[in-house]
Amino acid sequence: MPAFPIRMNMLGRLRRKIETIRRYPRLAWKPADRRDLWLLGLSRTHIISPGLAACLTTRHRRCITPGLDLTRGQRVRLELGHDGQIDVFDEIFLGQIYDLRGLGFVPDLVADCGGYCGYFTAMAAGFFPQARLVCFEANPDNIPMLEAQLALLGSRVELHASAVYVHEGFISFSGTGLGGAVTRNQADSRSRTIPCEDFPRWLQACAPQRLVWKLDVEGAEAELLPATLPHLPATTTCFLETHHPDATCEALLAPYRAAGFSVDEIRRRPAAGGRFDYVEWRLQRQP
Q: Of 6, 25, 94, 171, which sits most exposed with the smallest number of CB within 10 A?
């Protein structure tokens, strides 16, 4: 076989890597933030190692905290080489799966259910400086990482180290990183008991007039969506990730359509095993 097609494939891969790298510094809020974002791109594409990138960052640390245009300058904390954080960074800031620019209203409450490393909350803090920000995270292992991110936002964010669910008390939890989920009453040797909050009742007590609600809770949306619907204000946007087959999703979303919500699919990815797709949705209602 001639070497020419192989060289062309290599050049194509190199061009794709270069374009990927360039996407990161374009996110910078200020010129001073671009250097660390360049290094993030180089590390993400394996041009250099996370360790070398850390040596070259502004503060010569493995953790960078650039201000971003999509957070209106709010700093985000990212550990070079931490795949989970970088995956969420890419989803939110490169993929822009949560577009807060087109809401058409300013919320008085932002509830981030499934906060993980706090990037959605950081973005909301930049867009809505007067809103009440509340972040829920079920996985105890993620709390130190999340607290470190929220510390960059000052004292603005209320952190609830608990799962959102449809009753108050405790619930079984299993899994790590991005994939941890409540297991309801199906506890096994790998699960642990964590606190949970009755989210519909909590929201009813808050009584917001305008709400932004992010719900990414690895399957518990099946219980939360119907239980929360009666307590949503007339002006609500919900960014939702579902973890169920299409028929189940349609059954969950049909009452929202009937209640006046527009339902738009943002992104779809196949889950391992092909049993369902991970789907991001935007549900929006305004008077």
A: 6
